[in-house]
Write a structure and sequence with these properties.
The protein is mainly α and 266 residues long. It has one domain. Helix content is 76%, strand content 0%. It is globular.
Length: 266
Amino acid sequence: MSWTLFKANIKSARTIWILMTTVFILYFVIILSMYDPESTKALKQMLEMFPEALLKAFGMERVGTTLLSFVTIYMYGFLLLLFPMVISIVINHRLIAAHVDKGSMAYLLSTPNSRTKIVKTQALFSLASTTLFFAVITLSGLGLSQAMLPGEMETGKFILINVYALLMYFAIGGIGFFASCIANESKVSLGLGIGIPVAFLVLQMIGDAGDKFSWVGNLSLYNLFQPDKLVEGADFAYFGMAAFAVIAAVLHTAGISIFEKRDLHV
């Protein structure tokens, strides 16, 4: 690994990472402040004011009866599919494709670091930035829950849900990293890195909107992320974890291999 390059990545990505992480934690505070097991009836009545299809599309048609289920519904639904995605798209695009497009890859390749060392450093940073996000989210969630609602959070299951989400974003990040490794131009890298995850998100929302289009959701990678099934102890969640891990490994390995062998226009 090139520690100099790794530190440069930190400097480049810190603003977007801090911004998205902070906003996500602020939403967490808001969701925790809304939780009151004695007022779920009032919340249900409020949700009934919105179109059912809209609530289903955003995964908010249900009201959790425990703090864990409440947080799972309102934090680990649409919000989880949005904020970490922004971090993943921006960071993975900057790791390889942006350097090739700007011509700075020529400088990196002129250093004593080999092409293999460079691309593996970038892959490691991609995984590390995602891991750090979920580590901060997990610790913040546990700390805030204990401070605001002592003893209410099911710690073990909450940690497992975040591991599940982490593996999902290893796979989503793998898409962006792979796109970055194969692209010569920023527009190609961004087109694939943004287009594919967003397409999966749209398919998921359409599938959740109603039974008539439920089959559409099965085409989305996000459909493998079912935290409610993990809370229930269903085997599907563990299948999803394994699938995400395999997809992430394949995409990152393929990206590294292709970058090592491809001709670069730098």
